[in-house]
Design a protein that fits this description.
mainly alpha, disordered C terminus, 13 helices, binds zinc ion, 317 residues
């Protein structure tokens, strides 16, 4: 693929293919959890209030289209480098034993986890946050459409390791595909808005060392803390893990049920805001407009009023 028109066609076809696959999967998951399963999975909701509305989804889709374009350009560049023999990608199955493949896969996940953690910390520096990462954090009540809703700079940074690494480190091509699938699945899980893992998950090693949907969901409501994507290690080591994580993970169904009962008693309609087309609750989505504070004070009030989890209240910042 050397001529310009061939290159444009390759980019276009790859982009359309990626976008169609992405939105088909994300759309199905959203439909299953946020529409069809809305009542059925109520006990698994991580946040008490629903803030997602059509405006949020449209914004997320728009930013996702940019993220997918950057991902496509990265993939096309890797393809061209591979065709030119400039990468160390290999398709020779006989050269890769299962133990080596497994170690290689784990090694890449650990590397990717560190890459994500440190860049994520950088993206939270005030100047960088305002210019780039705020795009992702505009979504406080995260849902599957939030998964790839990034500023172009962030989208570039998150995949920027691939070309230099693939030019230096031998990688079995199907393993690279597996890593992409794992990264995609982890991102979706982090933004489900629901927690389906059993409560013992945060108590039993080695599971407890893994992050969960609740873990990243808390990052979206608290902003400062729980930066990691796959493992809790960096956050624990550097003191950036939110102290209320394990309690929130265990509490979720109970909190949701208590919240639903209380809201019903308060006369609040059961229909979620996003369905009613309201954007009133999106005040919480402005990271510099007192949003998180408002959200936290709401949580603090809720905890104080239902008389449970006083210790958690004290832990809120
Ligand atoms: Zn962040
Ligand atoms: Zn996120």
């Amino acid at each position: 693929m050397t001529d310009a028109s061939g290159l444009v066609r390759l980019v276009f076809e790859s982009y359309v293919g990626q976008a169609a696959t992405y939105f088909a999967i994300v759309g199905l998951i959203f439909f299953a959890l946020w529409r069809l399963g809305e009542r059925r999975f109520q006990g698994a909701r991580i946040q008490e209030k629903r803030r997602v509305d059509g405006r949020q989804i449209r914004r997320e889709v728009k930013h996702t289209l940019v993220t997918l374009l950057i991902g496509t350009l990265n993939a096309v560049a890797i393809t061209l480098l591979y065709q030119a023999g400039l990468t160390r990608l290999s398709t020779d199955a006989a050269a890769w034993s299962w133990p080596v493949l497994a170690l290689s896969f784990i090694g890449f996940i650990v590397f990717n986890d560190a890459w994500f953690y440190w860049w994520h910390r950088f993206l939270h520096r005030p100047q960088v946050f305002r210019r780039a990462h705020a795009v992702h954090h505009k979504s406080v009540d995260v849902n599957p459409f939030t998964s790839y809703s990034f500023h172009a700079f962030e989208a570039f940074i998150l995949g920027a390791w691939a070309i230099p690494v693939l030019m230096l480190v031998p990688v079995y091509l199907p393993l690279l595909v597996g890593l992409q699938v794992a990264g995609f699945a982890k991102n979706i899980e982090a933004h489900l808005g629901y927690e389906f893992l059993p409560r013992w998950f945060v108590r039993v090693p080695p599971f407890k060392w893994l992050t969960t949907s609740t873990y990243h969901n808390l990052h979206h409501t608290r902003f400062n803390g729980n930066y990691a994507l796959f493992f809790r290690g960096w956050d624990i080591l550097l003191g950036t893990e939110l102290p209320e994580y394990e309690q929130t993970f265990v509490d979720r169904g109970e909190r949701r049920t208590t919240g639903a009962v209380q809201r019903a008693e308060e006369g609040e309609p059961a229909t979620p805001r996003w369905r009613r087309g309201s954007s009133a609750a999106l005040g919480a989505s402005d990271p510099f407009g007192g949003g998180p504070g408002r959200l936290l004070s709401h949580h603090a009030k809720r905890r104080a009023s239902d008389g449970t989890g006083a210790a958690r209240c004290a832990g809120l910042r």
